[in-house]
């Protein structure tokens, strides 16, 4: 999980698991020669209690002489805007925050305090929701930049360690409320299963999840091989096709996975894609009807023709041309030419924070350089994009923002979008910057980006 020389961001809520993780990593970091920093997101969900958690983490960082990053967000408000559960809104906010700190520090890993008990709860939650083998395999100890060093430890072992070492931690009062599914599973379902059915239920679930994870990885390998054989891209358009007859002859398990791969290739992720969506698309292969279309989440469609089933974003069709996919990384400082938009982006960094830096113009904007980092990318609109417009307290779908700004649909795909290396939108070019990356009284270095239109390409 961690190599010598790594910089690890430790997500610390103040609770038992994350505090134990922090102390363990702090102990072994000198011997193993890696650096750790602390990141804490105040969700503003429990008022003074949330603020006290943040102060506890800040004080602990001072005692351990560790760098700490603390941010406060109004997640209850974001939940309303996202139209999702508080847990999902908090998860999105937390991951976005941790990725931003990872990029800001140029760190290598983010360590999370999930334990074996969290894995058991996750598997049962997914089982109740009707998940397939991927969901029933639960969380992974290592996934992308995220690591879970306590993954094989029980919550009881963590609490015993804290007691033996006389280490203080905070208790989240919301963990005792049965308003949330995870809490009901932890407080009611698991104890009932242990008492009435199998006292070793936790270990059995962990063993099943491990088996399913191995099988899921193997089936994914087969699915990728099959996808490569039956897939093709439409020339000049962001449109992906799967050979109808070839995929129809495959087993349902393999066919469903290939369909999910195709959706992910076009959509960018599989959020909101359910088993019901996959089954609907499957009928295009098994009972083909020319030109029949299936609507998919985030402005996607699947359409059947004589030989293939095509996957594409609806905007590609309505706009009359494909969404431009040029991805440009800006030179900082320097000039970068984006051929598809005929815009030269000129950048500079200054430590002189002038009062007018807080005011943005349509083609010139200023940002807190220590927040954005030195890797800025320019791309175009993608369905599902969200950002926090300047002056707002909660994030907003980019599509809704553009509608509110009265930008015609055919123009939306041509607006450059500037993002951090982790994908956070910092500027919808010509319209609005992100509130999260604005220049404030705390700003030490200012990144200035100006767009020069109709330049002579070099």
Outline the structure in words:
- With 458 residues, the chain is of the alpha+beta class.
- Mean pLDDT is 87; it is low at 316-324.
- β5 and β6 form a beta hairpin.
- It contains 16 helices and 22 strands.
- Helices cover 41% and strands 20% of the residues.
- The radius of gyration is 24 Å and the shape is globular.
- α1 crosses α7 (155-164) and α3 (75-82) packs across α4.
- The two termini are 44 Å apart.
- Strands 3-2-1-4-6-5 form a six-stranded mixed sheet, with helices on both faces. The protein has a five-stranded antiparallel sheet with strand order 7-8-11-10-9.
- The protein has three domains: 7-195, Rossmann fold (3-Layer(aba) Sandwich); 234-318, Uridine Diphospho-n-acetylenolpyruvylglucosamine Reductase, domain 3 (2-Layer Sandwich); 328-453, 3-Layer(bba) Sandwich (Phenylalanyl-tRNA Synthetase, Chain B, domain 3).
- It has helices at 16-32, 48-64, 75-82, 86-105, 116-128, 133-136, 155-164, 181-196, 201-230, 244-248, 252-267, 275-286, 314-318, 369-372, 398-404, 409-412; strands at residues 7-11, 35-42, 68-72, 109-111, 142-143, 146-147, 231-233, 239-243, 293-296, 300-304, 308-313, 328-329, 334-338, 343-350, 364-368, 377-379, 386-387, 396-397, 417-419, 425-428, 432-433, 446-453.
- The longest helix is centred in the middle third of the chain and has 30 residues, at 201-230.
């Amino acid at each position: 999980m961690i190599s010598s020389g790594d910089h690890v961001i430790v997500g610390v809520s103040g609770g038992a698991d994350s505090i134990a993780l922090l102390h363990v990593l702090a102990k072994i970091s000198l011997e193993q020669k890696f650096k750790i920093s602390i990141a804490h997101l105040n969700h503003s969900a429990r008022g003074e209690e949330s603020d006290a958690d943040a102060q506890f983490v800040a004080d602990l960082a001072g005692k351990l002489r560790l760098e700490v990053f603390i941010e406060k967000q109004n997640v209850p408000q974001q939940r309303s805007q996202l139209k999702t559960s508080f847990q999902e809104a908090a998860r999105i906010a937390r991951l976005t925050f941790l990725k931003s700190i990872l990029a800001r520090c140029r760190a290598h890993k983010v360590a999370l305090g999930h334990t074996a008990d969290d894995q058991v709860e996750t598997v049962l939650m997914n089982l109740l929701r009707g998940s397939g083998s991927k969901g029933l395999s639960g969380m992974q100890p290592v996934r992308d930049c995220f690591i879970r060093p306590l993954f094989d430890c029980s919550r009881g072992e963590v609490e015993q360690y804290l007691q033996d070492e006389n280490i203080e931690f905070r208790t989240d009062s919301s963990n005792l409320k049965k308003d949330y599914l995870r809490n009901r599973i932890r407080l009611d379902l698991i104890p009932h299963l242990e008492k009435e059915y199998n006292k070793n239920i936790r270990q059995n679930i962990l063993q099943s999840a491990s088996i399913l994870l191995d099988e899921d990885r193997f089936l994914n390998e087969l699915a990728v091989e099959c996808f490569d054989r039956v897939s093709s891209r439409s020339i000049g358009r962001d449109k992906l096709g799967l050979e109808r007859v070839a995929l129809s002859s495959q087993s349902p398990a393999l066919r469903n996975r290939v369909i999910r791969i195709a959706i992910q290739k076009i959509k960018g992720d599989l959020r909101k894609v359910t088993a019901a969506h996959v089954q609907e698309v499957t009928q295009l292969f098994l009972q083909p009807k020319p030109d029949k279309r299936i609507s998919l989440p985030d402005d996607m469609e699947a359409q059947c023709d004589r030989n293939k089933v095509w996957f594409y974003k609806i905007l590609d069709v309505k706009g009359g041309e494909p969404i431009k996919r040029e991805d440009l990384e800006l030179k900082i400082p320097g000039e970068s030419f984006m051929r598809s938009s005929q815009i030269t982006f000129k950048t500079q960094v200054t430590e002189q924070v002038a009062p007018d830096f807080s005011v943005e113009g349509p083609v010139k904007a200023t940002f807190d350089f220590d927040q954005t980092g030195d890797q800025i990318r320019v791309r175009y609109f993608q369905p599902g994009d969200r950002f926090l417009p300047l002056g707002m307290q909660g994030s907003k779908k980019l599509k809704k923002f553009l509608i509110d700004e009265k930008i015609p649909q055919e123009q939306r795909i041509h607006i450059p979008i500037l993002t951090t290396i982790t994908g956070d939108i910092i500027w919808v070019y010509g319209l609005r910057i992100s509130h999260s990356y604005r220049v404030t009284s705390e700003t030490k270095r200012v990144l200035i980006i100006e767009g020069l239109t109709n330049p002579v390409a070099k």
